[in-house]
Amino acid sequence: MKTKILMICLGNICRSPLAEGILKSKLDPKHYQIDSCGTSNYHIGSKPDKRSIQIAQKHNIDISSQKAAQFKNSDFDTYDYIYVMDNANYKDIIKLTQNPVHKNKVNQILNELHLDSNLDVPDPYYGGEQGFQEVYEMLDKACENIATKLKKHTQNI
Ligand code: 4NP
Kind and range of the H or E element at 133? Predict the structure, then answer.
């Protein structure tokens, strides 16, 4: 069975589509399913923001066919690992958990880079292109650590 990972942000058009694309580029699709969604319903059905598509393209990652979706309660059962981009996303998702198993699946993605830091991936939506570059770099590093950890874990089972 595939290991399933879900990336979550607010709108599912800037940060989590990038996180999905970056992690997909580091893991074999035969063994891993990676998706993303938003806590909000603001952009359901939309393609990622042009600036996210562009920064991904610059690194040979194509996220242009992704479509935004909203988190749903059944995702707690579907996914093994749930990564949120910031503290607000964490609060919104934790509010929906009904048991410790679901709660334990949720973590802030930058904790994979700086243990227990609870740092936010800043929302680049209202800023300029530079913000997207910075978000790309932090997500790339965090996803590298996640991919390494998952591959080790899979080898051991
Ligand atoms: P994201 O960025 O959560 O990284 O997709 C945002 C996109 C849209 C909005 C907020 C954040 N919005 O308010 O529409």
Answer: helix 129-155
Which of 7, 8, 14, 47 gets mutated to test ligand 1 (max ligand atoms within 8 A of its CB)? 14
* Residue 151 phi, psi (nearest 5): -65, -40
Distance of alpha carbon 80 from alpha carbon 76, whole angstroms: 8
CA atoms within 13 A on the CB side of 52: 28
pLDDT tens track for 40-95: 999 999 999 999 999 999 999 999 999 999 999 999 999 999 999 999 999 999 99
Q: Is 17 in the pocket of ligand 1 (CB under 6 A)?
A: no
Residues classed as catalytic: 9, 15, 123
Residue where the block lists tokens 């790339």: 140
| Tokens representing residue 45 in the block | 């059905």
Q: What is the rounded distance in angstroms from the CA atom of residue 127 to the CA atom of residue 131?
A: 6
- Residue 24, H or E segment: helix 15-26
Side by side, which strands form the sheet with 3-9?
32-38, 3-9, 81-84, 106-108
